Amino acid sequence: MRFAAVGLATALVYAVLVVWVPLLPGNLYVPLLDLGKITGYTWPAAFTFLAIVAALYVLYALGYVLVRNGHAATAAIFATATVFAIELIGAYPATAVDVFGYIAHGRLLAIHGVNPFTVAPAAYPTDTILPFLAFPTEPSQYGPLWVLLGDALALLSRTNLLTEILAYKVTAAVAHVASAALIMGIRSHIGGTPCQAKASAYLFLWNPLLLWEMVGNAHNDGLMMLGGVAALWLLTHSKYVLVLPALALGALVKLPVIVLAPLIGLTLWQRKKSAAIEGFWLALILAVVVYRPFWEGTNTLTALRRTDLFTASLGSVLRLSLSPQLGSDTATSLARAISLGAFGIVLGMTLLRVLRRGPRPLREVDTLGYLTMLAAALLATTWFQAWYLVWPLALAAPLPDGRRHLEAALLSLGGFLQYFVFIYLWVIGVFPPIESLALQLAAFLGIVGPPVLGVVLWRYAALTTHTKEVVGAD
After folding, report:
1. How far lies 252's CA from each of 153, 255, 285, in Å?
2. Which of 100, 196, 280, 314 is the most buried (most CB within 10 A)?
3. Can you say whether the dihedral through the CA atoms of 91, 92, 94, 98 is positive or negative?
4. Contact indicator for 121, 89 with CB cutoff of 8 Å
5. How much is the pTM?
6. Half-sphere exposure of 141 toward its Cβ, with a 13 Å CA cutoff?
7. What tens digit of pLDDT does each residue of 105-117 get?
8. pLDDT digit string (tens) for 348-401?
9. 416 near 449, Cβ under 8 Å?
10. Domain boundaries, given as residue ranges, for the chain
């Protein structure tokens, strides 16, 4: 009954959010809208945003405690989250316009009959989707599986914008629920009670940022991470030959999940060398077959073309800090090198840990995968976006470590705080109108501040408890 009450209250908050930024009747057909344009760049709108986010996270925390304590059935967890997703299908994608880019690239193949990897939407100025695009001169930045899916959805929708938006939202919602089901299966297999397995699924499925980004904004990162989570599920269930092909499927939607390949490949090699070799060749053949219809040389590989962009990241803070002394070009190169170097160190340490100790328990492999994807989002990506947090959160959820759950949940809260900084504080005038170090630092601290504070408090609580136990024993 208590969980049902939390679910009902959460559904009401999402209803308020959808009414605040509705897809229909008029927002859908106005190009390049965002949260600030819809709600107004005012302090009342800013506080309303914070109130909605705060309410969702308080309810999210209450629900997590109830699930951990055995007060929620699996069906109730998934059914309520499905209700939230259905609600968010009715929300305008108010913090990202990526879904309109998906539509444009799907139309390139389905309607115009050209290669989306080598032709940009701007080549067809009469296409009605063009005014909605933030990057009309860019070809697709994703993988061939995503392009093929976009082709299918464009043919199904027949250039009806509403139908296309709904199709992408439903696809993202299905991927979100499917990932949660796999996460529950992973947690059940690597250890833990049924309540703990349900808590892992809940942590991912009910997460407010993920629901907003995957369904509200219809991002494809959830579908990408479905491949990563499927690979981990197959690994935990000893279906070794299929692990790397599953990971490849995710990477053929969007590339970043490929950073897990060294860790997972090494883990497979230690467990069953023949399966690792077979899986590698299957994954490679899959990639060749899917890429072949689009291949026009290395120009087809477009996924890394935005590496010169910086925002809300360690790299952006370093770049603006160093620019006055070194100049913009040198500062940019150095900031990128430091960020990628830091990511390389994390990746190297995870691989060394596996190499030095031999086959590791699967929960430790998941932990190393989580740290790898966390570093990919916060270090390797200089152009950080809130929806990238699905990368680490999808691997944090199956872990049997409550501290990691708290860390991931608070990190997702930081994603919303980044929006608060850029959409409201910047435009209202708290920061200068031009890009500044103060702005980028505030956005970066908004992201990493909550999880850092949470970990500090967690360790303080653990130390206090330990001290009391020692004193009591004396």
Report:
1. 17, 7, 12
2. 100
3. positive
4. no
5. 0.94
6. 15
7. 999 999 999 999 9
8. 999 999 888 767 788 899 999 999 999 999 999 999 999 999 999 999 999 988
9. no
10. 2-473
